[in-house]
């Protein structure tokens, strides 16, 4: 691990550590605003302070998870390193903690299943269909890659079907959290989590805002895979999988809400082609919310390591590019999905995701 | 007009003026990225540069509107003032130009009618229902206020039904644009407009990105109102309408995607109560996307004049507050709406808007 990477990890851990403090600040600003109102106005909102107190309690409960992730992350990733001095909070990093908490709801709560069924199930069903003739005990020889694995539920669910799966991830928010999840969680339903307390907008009821779930719905450590058929690789997708050792390695590459993270989609496609076996399948589901579109236009980016490159294609151009790149598209479908979306919010983000199965031509 | 206000106007006009330049920059960054690709990769995307050229042409066409607004705005609002020196572009202001262009599509294009039918029609229908016994020629005595009038289509459509309507607006992006629209537009379908070229994400086809409409679908100046029953007031809602002269002035106040612009919703409600006649109606439609939620937590705000206050209520608490404030709620309904949303985008923002009719109690 080089020094830059250590800095990113230390910054990531700092953000987890300061989650409680930053949320407390947000709540206290509201409390002070409320107390600065005229007494007659305060009387109109008699339950408002009590509501803030409840959010404060919820933050404390979320803190248990954030603090445990930070503790385990520090001992695993920065063991023996001296990063105890107070660091400043990196811009944009607290938002990533808040997203990570929502991702726990999506990937590892019982209620997140509705979202997972829209996004992960079509992919898993397609994989099972492709290999339906192979009994579950013989599936270890089938190698499947899940780039952008996030908190690991999609690769985990694929591994449960008997396949050998490797998740790949770049973000230390995801990597540290999933390391914690896969190695230190003692039981299912270990933590309470309030995933939707971080915005105060578009809630119908106070109860909706204070919606609580437990995680994980299943303890990944309690599931004994037949041998070791589940692994995670750390690093940027094209760097890891364009290596010679990865040539024609995978039977399936499954990308879910991933391809639009590409600064250069051409190298993503080339890497997929390179690491798939001839005749292997690329299964995709997701929108085209090109992650670097905004940054590529701003000289002063809010984050480090932003590539100075962004190529944003429309779906039709992308599909043509995929065909030009040595793939045959077997199947296409549009599937309405959500992504860490509060089901009770008055504002819904509906991603009309594109699902496809592309076969690497056997040249 | 004080000097601060003049500065805001000059900054607003500067943003309209520089629209073409900033978009050109965004396109040129893509062109340079593309040309820096390996020749073999460029060959995979033979139509990409042509696509960028078409976006560039579309920007030039959008520029005609932006430039005309700037020209008229300067002569009307800064006449004789010396603001010709080069100004820096205010942070966040270009985004407001892009939103204004989309608002023209929403409010003044034929295709925007689908959105207007969801948001404006329920309000207009309710007003007509309340005053169905009054013939159109006698409706001038009915005073209706539309706070947050934007580009003025809702107040305009209400005025077409014979009522006396005042729109109120605070943003000079909206004020200058609607001044231009209501006073200088010569004919309907005068301008072509490409409302969806400002993001390159989530487009299915190049054609979708380059969707073109004409504006306005109706020339407001061609409609002769029976007398002068349509006006616009400039200023912050509570400042203008909590004045004594406004007491019990309006028969109806119609708020559409407006109430969540409040830093302090209590003073919005008090102002509505103050300026409504006893027995008058407050008709509302919109979500609760509290505009100042984010700013209230950030010490360094990206914009000027951000209040240090934000009170974000859930819908149930807000409804209780309205009842406590001297209103009787007659009717409630949830209506799914969009707001300047590209109908062809792979990402849809669905606002589950709350519609209500609240009657000021006759005390």
UniProtKB/TrEMBL annotation, chains A, B:
<comment type="similarity">
    <text>Belongs to the carnosine N-methyltransferase family.</text>
</comment>
<dbReference type="Pfam" id="PF07942">
    <property type="entry name" value="CARME"/>
</dbReference>
<dbReference type="GO" id="GO:0032259">
    <property type="term" value="P:methylation"/>
</dbReference>
<keyword id="KW-0489">Methyltransferase</keyword>
<protein>
    <recommendedName>
        <fullName>carnosine N-methyltransferase</fullName>
        <ecNumber>2.1.1.22</ecNumber>
    </recommendedName>
</protein>
<keyword id="KW-0949">S-adenosyl-L-methionine</keyword>
<keyword id="KW-0808">Transferase</keyword>
<dbReference type="InterPro" id="IPR029063">
    <property type="entry name" value="SAM-dependent_MTases_sf"/>
</dbReference>
<dbReference type="GO" id="GO:0030735">
    <property type="term" value="F:carnosine N-methyltransferase activity"/>
</dbReference>
<dbReference type="InterPro" id="IPR012901">
    <property type="entry name" value="CARME"/>
</dbReference>
